[in-house]
Design brief:
By secondary structure, the chain is α/β, with parallel strands linked by helices. The strands form four sheets. Strands 1, 14, 15, 16, 17, 18 and 19 form a seven-stranded mixed sheet that branches. Strands 12-11-8-4-3-2-13 form a seven-stranded parallel sheet. The chain is globular, with a radius of gyration of 25 Å. The structure holds 1-deoxynojirimycin and calcium ion. Calcium ion binds next to loops.
Length: 583
């Protein structure tokens, strides 16, 4: 690898010995000590606070169980706000805690204006908001817009008779003459997307489980009821929403069949392209109305989107033509890649960076629906899952834009998948076993310390088993270890808060390199260089004689070493340093 015209020379090394020593096979130097206290976010009180922020996703069921019933809860989150603050997260996105039969662990909401007793009370949310405020940590809720629970009073009314005033809150259709469903649309959670109601003898539509009937957003009364619910929490001091499953809010009214492809999904249903029941143009009109009629009435409030897109061109639609839709449509595309390579990432990130409406980027590498990133890809010889956690953390936290960080990723938590179908909690895992094992593995309890149940609670059996590595992989142990994944994350987040270059531009350098993803952040007259070796082989970044740049200060390093004339990066090596032009 060569840095092309952006050459640099060594002028400052924190350890002189490194200058002369050959690069060791595994160079673990952490050149910048972790911050003792996280520096404050300079933009915390501004309306565009979210641009300099890190959003931390908390799955309440799994974070901390304050009343020792085996299930995490809101008071558990409040008790750990000091930790969230010390990590440098500026906002929590709390996944659904509303009253729910828990068919999809909260993504089946039975009342949008309340809290499920197993998670706490509305007063607990108020307290989380208030306690967060004193620490500069805002709260975002999860707004499940596509569907409700089948136990929601709206659906109970709707299914009671064809003439009930709530009938049109949902999508009902007659059977075909032979009694079969209205068309071939499949649920992505298995089977037909239509379920017959035996009383009224019509089918209702559900993109997810039958217990999650789709709302009919073409009905203005649905819009009014849902907008009122959104506003209810904003008035309580919530800072906005992560919008669930926005792609599927609308479906074609002519019920055109989807095209079927060879093969079957994990549930044995023929593969199909959901072209007629997702990503309809009306989604954008509706999201723009939500932004204008609800969110923009409250300064500083934001919409984050669960926006699964195949590339940046598709993503751009979710910003809206005048940036009037979602402030942060998450670019989730990187989560679904079979592997992470420098050329591919360079091209995808550049696509987001150059989006045609100038939308603010938001990247995520993990969430509660995807394998944990540390255990997602093969580990190269000599490296470990920690090294995957560090290189992906470095990527997420040094890109421009707003990262969304899933709880436990900062510890390098790995998937703990069920070994037997009897142990599976997530229904898609029961239905799809063994092809689809469900999402339990990435939802295990947060690992706080080495005590029983990793400090998740006071000893009651947690709803999912704690991962076996908790005795060493936990907040307490990693806080004390300067080389831990946690301290690597803290260093990088502190850098985002304090270094002017990290508030500036992003530019790929050495764009032909196939091993190392190299880019610069520049702002306030400063430049930070990031080198990420995503390859299974070591890489060297030579420093040539015609030097034009010098390394001022290495800032975060793992498995990489600056020695005379080159930066040596082991597989999964990370080198982040401030550089400056030589006058
Ligand atoms: C996306 C959520 O992240 C997932 O957990 C849920 O099962 C579906 N939407 C349905 O709400
Ligand atoms: Ca509990």
């Amino acid at each position: 690898m060569s840095l092309g015209r952006s050459l640099f020379r060594v002028t400052l090394l924190s350890a002189a010995a490194m200058l002369f020593a050959p690069a060791p096979a595994s160079a673990q130097a952490m050149l910048q000590p972790p911050p003792k206290a996280m520096p404050a976010n300079p933009t915390v009180d501004q309306n565009d606070w979210w641009k300099r922020s890190v959003i931390y996703e908390v799955y309440p069921r799994s974070f901390a169980d304050s009343n020792n019933d085996g299930i995490g809860d809101i008071q558990g989150i409040t008790r750990h706000l000091d930790y969230i603050q010390s990590l440098g997260a500026d906002a929590i996105w709390m996944t659904p805690m509303f009253p729910s039969p828990q068919a999809d662990f909260g993504y089946d909401v039975a009342d949008y204006d309340n809290v499920d007793p197993q998670f706490g009370t509305v007063a607990d949310v108020d307290q989380l908001v208030a306690q967060g405020k004193t620490r500069g940590v805002k709260l975002l809720l999860d707004f499940v817009v596509n569907h409700t629970s089948d136990q929601h009073p709206w659906f109970q009314q709707s299914k009671s008779s064809r003439t009930n005033p709530y009938r049109d809150f949902y999508v009902w259709h007659d059977p075909k003459p032979d009694g079969s469903p209205p068309n071939n649309w499949a649920s992505i959670f298995g089977g037909s997307a239509w379920t017959l109601d035996p009383v009224t003898k019509q089918y209702y539509y559900h993109f997810f489980y039958p217990q999650q009937p789709d709302l009919n957003w073409r009905n203005p009364k649905v819009e009014k009821a849902m907008f009122d619910a959104a506003e209810w929490w904003l008035k309580r001091g919530v800072y906005g929403y992560r919008l669930d499953a926005v792609d599927t809010m609308f479906e074609r009214t002519d019920l055109k069949d989807n095209k079927v492809y060879p093969g079957v999904d994990a549930f044995g249903v023929p593969n199909q392209d959901h072209v007629n029941n997702s990503k309809q143009p009306e989604v954008h009109t509706e999201l723009q109305r939500l932004r204008q009629m609800v969110i923009d009435k409250y300064p500083g409030r934001i919409l984050v989107g669960e926006t699964w897109t195949s590339d940046a061109q598709e993503l751009v639609q979710y910003y809206g033509p005048r940036n009037n839709e979602l402030q942060l449509p998450m670019f989730l595309n990187l989560i679904s890649l079979p592997g992470l390579t420098a050329p591919d990432l360079r091209q995808r990130i550049t696509g987001v960076e150059t989006n045609s409406v100038g939308g603010w980027p938001s990247f995520a590498l993990s969430n509660h629906d995807s394998r944990r990133v540390a255990s997602r890809y093969p580990v190269p010889a000599g490296a470990s899952t920690d090294d995957w956690a560090k290189i992906t953390g470095a990527l997420l936290l040094t890109l421009r834009g707003t990262p969304v960080l899933y709880y436990g990723e900062e510890l390098g938590m790995v998937n703990n998948d069920p070994q037997r179908i009897e142990d599976v909690q997530d229904v898609i895992g029961k239905k799809g076993w063994p092809k689809e094992k469900g999402r339990d593995g990435e939802r295990t309890p947060m690992q706080w310390d080495a005590s029983a149940n990793a400090g998740f609670n006071a000893g009651a059996k947690p709803w999912l088993p704690v991962a076996p590595d908790y005795k060493t992989r936990n907040v307490a142990a990693e806080s004390a270890d300067p080389h831990s994944v946690l301290n690597f994350y803290r260093t990088l987040i502190a850098l985002r808060r304090t270094h002017p270059a990290m508030a500036g531009d992003w530019k790929a350098v050495d764009t032909d390199d196939r091993q190392v993803l190299a880019y610069q952040r520049s702002g306030g007259g400063k430049t930070v260089l990031v080198l990420l070796n995503l390859d299974a082989k070591p890489a060297d970044v030579p420093i040539e004689k015609t030097q034009t740049m010098e390394v001022l200060q290495p800032l975060a390093v793992n498995r990489a070493l600056l020695i005379s004339g080159r930066v040596h990066l082991d597989p999964l090596g990370v080198y982040v340093a401030e550089i400056t032009p030589i006058p």
